[in-house]
Task: structure prediction
Amino acid sequence: MKRDGKKIIFEKESDLPPNAMSLGTTEFNETGSWRNERPVVDKAKCISCGICWKYCPDMSIKEDSEGKAEIDYVFCKGCGICAAECPVKAITMIEEEK
Amino acid sequence: MKYSIPQKELMNPGHLACQGCGGALSLRLVLKTLGENTILTFPACCWSVIDGPFPYSSVKVPLFHTAFETAAITAAGIKAGAKKVEKEYVNAVAWAGDGGTYDIGIQALSGAAERNDDIFYFVYDNEAYMNTGVQRSSATPKGAWTTTTPTTFPKAEFKKDLDAIVAAHYVPYQATASPSYPEDLTKKLEKAVKIRGFKFFHILAPCPPGWKTNPEDTIKLGKLAVESGIFPLYEIENGEKYTINMPSPKKDLKPVNEYLTKQGRFRHLKEDDVKTIQEYVNKRWEKLKRLAGV
Result:
């Protein structure tokens, strides 16, 4: 068994574990590439209410050093829940560019 | 940031749920309260896929993939095993979709409820077999489109009243919850953790691809379902004591129209159909108020 970052590679059949068990987390799967629109936080408007964090299905809202919302673009799938639920409209969805 | 629910995260990002998935959000919120001493059981459902391919997992607790009809009984077996090795504090959790609960898993659910096994049973109800491409289940509401009930013949029957079926087993605790109200869900879980015996949770999980909605409307739809009385939040203790949490029994309900028009699966409905649904919702709401004594 080899590890390439967070990915696990089995080279031979004998490398496989004896039963179906998990050996790593899905964090190798950078779902940010699914995104059509990216949420952008206007930190001047953010009131640190934590509503976007509470409703994010992808654990992609983090807290920055000032306690404001920060988005983890590696995993954010761009569903837009944070922008729709923000009570002060501090998050806007901007089309992703290639 | 203000944290109104536990800050601890027991799920990893990178899971395979669709954008705006209500089911993924529900398990995230549930694990926050249940904590690390939890063993999950998944029958065939969306979560069999969301969790990720072998040998990866997207939850930080042990989990067991099992056959479609056996979610409740597998969890009961895990709890019995945990007792044997003196780890009675382990929360054995069955986490099933509506197909694996309403249709296929109902005998195992009924058996575990009757024996009063000390487990949690969660049904995250997205109102059809979404994982296999939107086929009708007995949880699909009347008038909804699915691939097996096309718009020319939308589902003719009303949704099965599973909560009443479970209540007929007189289980110690059961509740309905929604990922749109995380504080309410957390409060109910904190209460349930202290109870020995069968605990049943019914969670309405909006599904953007299956309901034909925008992913950003997931939370709004959950709230509208509650406010319009389609999915009221309530608790039942010992099958008898009903408590309505939301919406307030003293206020009027929102019309169902707002909830229905947001969803593509109800787009073909005519005025008469909406009226039938509204009458049914009102009737159910009056019945629930009567049971709760308000």
Remarks:
- Chain A has one domain: 30-98.
